[in-house]
Amino acid sequence: MRKKLLLMVVCTFMVLNCCACDKNEPVKKTKDEVTELNPFKSVTDDLLVAREGGECTALYYYDYDRNGYLYACGRKNCSHNIEEYQNGIIQCDAIIDGATYYPFVYNDRTFYFVEGDEGYSLWSSKQDGTDKKKKADLNFTLNTESKGVRCQDKVYVSSREEVYEEVEEGQEEQVGGAAEVYEIDLSKGSVKQLTNLGTYADANCEDIHFYDGKLIISYFCREKTYAEAGFDNVAKYIEWAQSEKFSHQENVKRIGLRKKKYVYDLKTKKLKPFDIGFECQFEEYKGLECMDGSYVILGFDKDTVVYLEPLAGDYTVYSYNMKTKERKEIFSSFMNMETLNDGIVYITSMEMDEATKKEREPRVDLKQPPKYYSYNLETGELNEDHYGEEGKVFYAIDRNEKGLLVNETAFDENYESYDEHDIREINIK
Asked: Engineering a disulfide at 339: which of 25, 123, 396, 401 sits with its beta carbon 3.0 to 4.6 angstroms away?
């Protein structure tokens, strides 16, 4: 559910009211050494860059200083409307022919990956959308549902290769998959494979983080095809998974499920397991070493990793100091959404609808408004923040001098999705 919340984007083609629309100057120089890359947006130096659209996409910024949106286009009186661009009504420098992913700003230029007919490539332009240049062609299929990271002039993303076979006439099934981590040099335009994790029935690098000269990789694989696991096809597997006969422990064993964390040392070029002594609290996973990576890393601060264990009905956030081996429980509730920024964990918390607690997937109680908390990693203090609004739910993106940058959406049955344009700043102390 949490991953769905992070990655689901309700694309819109409406024209936004942009600040400084007639004079779209370069916004600012990027000084951050590390940028976390989301498939649809990134935040660097008080500047958020994001994309909208589908087969054609438009790049835009949210500038903290100007307190508003700014498209990557310097043309006067441009509507930046994708449909008008596709119909030949306008020319717009912000619009890209092709789906774009992982937009970010570095050294006064905007970078983004483009999916084309011949595969994926990395491009850059000036911040006003002009001077577009191809930086590199990728020799792999880009994983567009994972997090990546930029460290100085290197970008680290993952691949997602899938192999399908026809199991019945007109019906294909995945029988192979591989996921590897790649380094792209922004200065040289070179592409290099870093890992060799192998080929399985399915595999995925779920996210990549940077810490102390190392990459921390969250990795998933399914070792057996559904046929090898004793199912005639994927439909039979789904039927079993939704039946009363299903158990998580048997599922892990039958399909060969593995969730692992790895650390890749950029200096020594060596890969090894990343171990924080995590023990899953889910009863059916307890004692299974193959599930010792079944937690979500939120980020790193100094020698501390902050992570989430997302159990059904109990989302718990922990911190773990990798030098002292000290582990602390930070916060727990039915549903959390968290952001780590400059040593502070910002938490949006929602409670369960008690009437649904016996259901396979209990739901949030829409009658109880969301609550907001901040946890200081240095002092260990947890404070409840009071910036909520009736009928709204806020998800923190970044902290800035003015306060907190958040996505906002209506607190209703659609609270799990939001339009990436629903961004605002909240003044908090």
From this structure: 396
Beta carbons of 263 and 210 less than 8 angstroms apart: no
Structure confidence by residue, pLDDT tens digits, 65-83: 777 888 999 899 999 999 9
pLDDT digits (tens, 9 = 90+) for 176-209: 999 999 999 999 999 999 999 999 999 999 999 9
CA 39 – CA 149 distance, rounded (Å): 11
Give the whole-angstrom CA distance, residue 151 versus residue 174.
34
**Smallest Cα–Cα separation from 301: which of 345, 255, 337?**
345
- Tell if the pTM clears 0.70, that is, is over it: yes
Among candidate residues 1, 2, 43, the one with its CA nearest the CA of residue 307: 2
CA Rg value for the chain: 22
pLDDT at 304 over 90: yes
Give backbone dihedrals phi and psi of 183, rounded to 5 degrees, phi first: -110, 130
State the DSSP H helix or E strand holding residue 216, giving kind and residue range, or none if neither.
strand 214-222
What is the rounded CA–CA span in Å between residue 31 and residue 51? 22
